[in-house]
Structures are given as C-alpha cells and as structure tokens.
Amino acid sequence: MRITIAFFLLILVVFNACKSETETVQKDTINTEFLALENLEEEIFNYSINTNKNKLIKKGKSLLKLSQDYIALYPKDSCLERVYEMAALGAEVSGSYNDAINYLYLAQRNFPESKKAPIYLFNRARILDDILMKKKQSELAYRELIELYPNDSLSISMKKYLESDLMNKSEQELLDFFNSKN
C-alpha cells in the first residue's frame, strides 16, 4: 500500500514538473510571437511616417495575418486585447476595412471595461463614417459609444458631433462651415 501511494505521488510530481516545463515553453513561444507582432506594428508606424504606401500595405497584411494566427493559437492569452488592436491596425492599413471593424468590435466586446474600449468603438465608427461612407451604420456606432461610455470625452465629443448635423454635410458644406467660424 505504501509503495502504491509513493508511486502515485512520484507520478504526480513528475507530471507537474512536465506540465510546468511545457507551460514555460509555451509561454516563451507566446512571448516570442507577441514580440514579433509588436515589432511589425512599430514598423507600420515607421512606414506611415515615411509614407511608403506599398511597404505599408504589405506590413499591414502581414500584421493582420500574424494577428489572426496568434488569436487562433492563443484564444485565452492575456495579451489578446492588444492582438485585437494590432489585427485592426493591420486590417485598416492593408485596406481590409471590414476586418478592421470586426477586430475593433471584438476588442470592445471582449474587453468592455478596458480604458481603450471607447476608442475601439470610436475607431469602428470612424472607419464606417470616413472611409466606407456608411453614414447610418457609423451613426449607430457613435450612438453605441455614447450609450455605453457616456462620461468618456470621445462620447461627449461625438454627441456634439451628431447633434450638430455635421455628419450629413458634404465636403464643401463642411469647408464653408469651418471657414465661416474663422
């Protein structure tokens, strides 16, 4: 009986040691992959400053693909919010605007208490409004921002923006409006 208990305890110790070693290797892999994502994100910011559009688009596509792979491999990772951000950036830079909107949505929905959550909603609405010209959808996204985060400075600004009816003005009307304020 003592031999059985000792053997059982030995198996538990060995199993836990192996488990711990496997977790360390997996954590190192995650850290390496996450660092690669961060480096690519930094390169995108550098290219955007230098305005090399072709390289920027390629880097954006790479960041999107690597982010998607990371999300698939590590769906419970503690860095997932940042990876959603990077996926959205890569998608927007590469022109995959619907993907950008989806990753911003996922970031906000999965991390609604994050201090960046209002920014995710704002950027989603901004892409819908300014890039895709989907005014009704963007208005709904701005209203969602205002409803979910009423005290956030972005919400306050967007509430004024919606009340001012600037959203429904043409470019010329906006120019005339802003020129008249000067």
Which SSEs are present, and which pair or pack?
Blueprint: H1 2-50, H2 53-73, H3 80-94, H4 97-110, H5 117-131, H6 135-148, H7 153-164, H8 171-181
Helix pairs in contact: 1-2, 1-3, 2-3, 3-4, 4-5, 5-6, 6-7
Write structural notes for this entry.
By secondary structure, the chain is mostly helical. Helices cover 83% and strands 0% of the residues. It contains 8 helices and no strands. Helix 4 (97-110) runs antiparallel to helix 5. It is globular, with a radius of gyration of 23 Å. The model is unreliable at 1-28 (pLDDT under 50).
Runs in which pLDDT lies below 50 for 5 or more consecutive residues are 1-28
Give the terminus-to-terminus CA distance. 91 Å
- Summarize the main sheet: none
Order of helices and strands: HHHHHHHH
What is the helical fraction, as a range of percent?
Answer: over 70%
> Which structural category fits the helices and strands?
mainly alpha
Q: How big is the Rg?
A: 23 Å
Broad shape: globular
Strand content: under 5%
Mean pLDDT: 80
Q: Give the number of DSSP strands.
A: 0
DSSP helical segment count: 8
